[in-house]
Amino acid sequence: MLQVLQKFSVLGLPVHITAHYRDWLQSRLQQRQGTHVVTLNAEMAMQALENLDLAAVIHQADLVIPDGAGVVFYFLVRGRKIQRCPGIELAESLVQLAGDLGEECSTFFFGGKPGIAEIAAKRWQGELPGLAIAGTQDGYLSPEDEPAFKARLQQLQPRLILVGLGVPRQEFWIRENRHLCPEAIWVGVGGSFDIWSGQKERAPVWLQRLQMEWAYRLYQEPWRWRRMLALPHFAWISMKTALRQ
């Protein structure tokens, strides 16, 4: 039986709350219901305020999870405590599920710099011998090569497609191309391939528990500081709108 998702709003964007996202997605997989998963954080929410096309994609998604600490804070100042669901952890649980299902749930890794998706896929296959890798493709496709890639994806029909192109490019790409594999679960995974391939490290567990994973990412990628300004702005809007309500 498919679980019922509770739907809430964060700055006008949908967020779905359940204690068992993987179970919900497994049910969708078994029922061959195509699914677009968006991992919402404060930075994406602020982008969506300016980019109405991105906001539309988020509204059209089948599942929007509370990925970032900012989204958790948004609910907290409204008196509701929710559990954060990091997108990388949900993606990992889905890869593990695919490993259990084998050929029934072949997986495709798309995105990242040349070679990174392939390394990430091989690392997962080393941990999960039953994992069926449908294929890999880096995110540096030329416009001339993209039609052939899309035809390949359509022929393979993987059931789990992980897209690591960064926000909002991966969200737009999934919306425009999910018809190629209508029974697949599509997940925008951002920089997860970099972590799975060993190119980067995820924040220490103690920082994750303090909801400060963003600080470690800024430490690793100081060039992101302008984008990180969205976080205090999001916190201010969260408190201001809570007071109005």
Task: Considering the chains and any ligands shown, give keywords for the structure.
245 residues; alpha/beta; six-stranded parallel beta sheet; two-stranded antiparallel ribbon; 13 helices
In short:
This protein is of the alpha/beta class.
- State the separation between the terminal residues, measured CA to CA: 36 Å
Number of strands: 8
Strand residue percentage: 15-25%
How would the global form be characterised? globular
What percentage of residues falls in helices of 4 or more residues? 40-55%
Number of helices: 13
Record the strand order, biggest sheet: 4-3-8-7-5-6
Mean pLDDT: 91
Main pleated-sheet profile: 6 strands, parallel
Order of helices and strands: EEHEHHEHHEHEHEHEHHHHH
- Low-confidence region ranges: none
Write down the Rg: 18 Å
Question: Structural class, from helix and strand content?
Answer: alpha/beta
Keywords: Glycosyltransferase, Transferase
Protein name: WecB/TagA/CpsF family glycosyltransferase
InterPro entries: WecG_TagA_CpsF
Task: Give structural notes.
With 245 residues, the chain is α/β, with parallel strands linked by helices. The chain has 13 helices and 8 strands. The chain has a 6-stranded parallel β-sheet with strand order 4-3-8-7-5-6, with helices on both faces. The chain has a two-stranded antiparallel sheet with strand order 1-2. Strand 1 and strand 2 form a beta hairpin. Helix 1 packs across helix 5 and helix 2 crosses helix 13. The radius of gyration is 18 Å and the shape is globular. The N and C termini lie far apart (36 Å). The mean pLDDT is 91. It comes from Laspinema olomoucense D3b. InterPro entries: WecG_TagA_CpsF. Keywords: Glycosyltransferase, Transferase. This is WecB/TagA/CpsF family glycosyltransferase. Pfam families: Glyco_tran_WecG.
